[in-house]
């Protein structure tokens, strides 16, 4: 996220991602309750479908962006020494990006294999 | 009734401490009268006050954990022992008297006046009654500071976050049809600090002695920003 995203954009993204995460979580819950995949092959077919895999990836990205904005807000509020804050932000950004890549890789592998 | 008031003299005390006083409370006594009685018992006790009727905004204190104007707070409504402290988060000058400089700086920073780019007309700039109504719930602010000093975001970043009072004022001028600096005002509020430190905690709404709603005003500013940027 660029520096421009610092105020209004971060706030708007936080709200948009919250809506999407909420809706998709509800969908996930309903699927798991009423149409849960029976076995691994079944699950693979479901999650590997073009619509579900893209929606799932969007979900993961939304969760990570939402987390980033939230954590950044907490650090701006409470951690004032700029070096410590920058270091913490760096570590968290790396961790979030790593999680995103890992999830993307899993979703791609499911489609390929 | 039993009162515990915060005492602090920066010349002689290492830290603020609570001192106990007994005050006889007649019917209808306001907290300010009780503080005046305490001052009669110990004239070194300091607090600010002036109008005595909730208009000047100078006697804001923290009573049993909530910011209030002492002069319009009936003692009978308070739980005993009544603990009176200075506004939280502000540097203490003495006893209940705090340094509000940052609060006024934030007020000043939102340019609390009507900005006109057009040449000034010969007569008043007229508003319709409907346009005037938009200022209700905004212009009544008496700058007492009860809201901003109860806002956690203002405690953590008082030099960068405008706080509810100044943001309410920012909206008061954004909502004013005579003002012509909407874009400049919105641009000045961008960034993570001045406006967007507000996390809608709503402490400000709860304490405002004038019944104003800074959180709503802040929501209006965010909505206008969003509208003007898409
Ligand atoms: S709503 Fe915003 S301004 Fe009001 S107390 Fe909460 S954080 Fe502060
Ligand atoms: S908004 Fe209310 S609490 Fe805040 S300074 Fe104005 S009158 Fe006081
Ligand atoms: S003394 Fe003026 S508001 Fe209380």
Structural descriptors:
heterodimer; A: mainly alpha; 3 helical TM bundles of succinate and fumarate reductases; elongated; B: 230 residues; alpha+beta; Fumarate Reductase Iron-sulfur Protein, Chain B, domain 2; 2 domains; five-stranded mixed sheet; two-stranded antiparallel ribbon; 8 helices; 31% helix; binds iron/sulfur cluster
Word description of this protein:
Chain A has 113 residues and is an all-alpha fold. Chain A has a single domain (3-112), classed as 3 helical TM bundles of succinate and fumarate reductases (Up-down Bundle), CATH 1.20.1300. Chain A is built from 4 helices and no strands. Chain A has helices at residues 8-34, 40-48, 50-78, 82-112. The longest helix of chain A is centred in the C-terminal third of the chain and has 31 residues, at 82-112. Chain A is elongated and about 50 Å long. The model of chain A has no long low-confidence stretch (mean pLDDT 92). Chain B is α+β, with helices and mostly antiparallel strands. Chain B has 2 domains: 2-98, Roll (Ubiquitin-like (UB roll)); 101-229, Fumarate Reductase Iron-sulfur Protein, Chain B, domain 2. In chain B, α2 (101-109) runs parallel beside α5. Chain B is elongated. The structure holds iron/sulfur cluster (2 copies) and FE2/S2 (inorganic) cluster. Residues 49-52, 54-59, 69, 71 of chain B line the site of FE2/S2 (inorganic) cluster (FES).
Topology:
The complex is a heterodimer of chains A (113) and B (230).
Chain A: H1 8-34, H2 40-48, H3 50-78, H4 82-112
Chain B: E1 2-7, E2 17-22, H1 31-41, E3 60-63, E4 66-69, E5 82-85, E6 92-94, E7 97-98, H2 101-109, H3 129-133, H4 152-156, H5 163-174, H6 182-189, H7 203-207, H8 214-229
Parallel strand pairs in B: 1-5
Antiparallel strand pairs in B: 1-2, 3-4, 3-5, 6-7
Helix pairs in contact in B: 2-5, 5-8
Bound molecules: iron/sulfur cluster (SF4) (2 copies) and FE2/S2 (inorganic) cluster (FES).
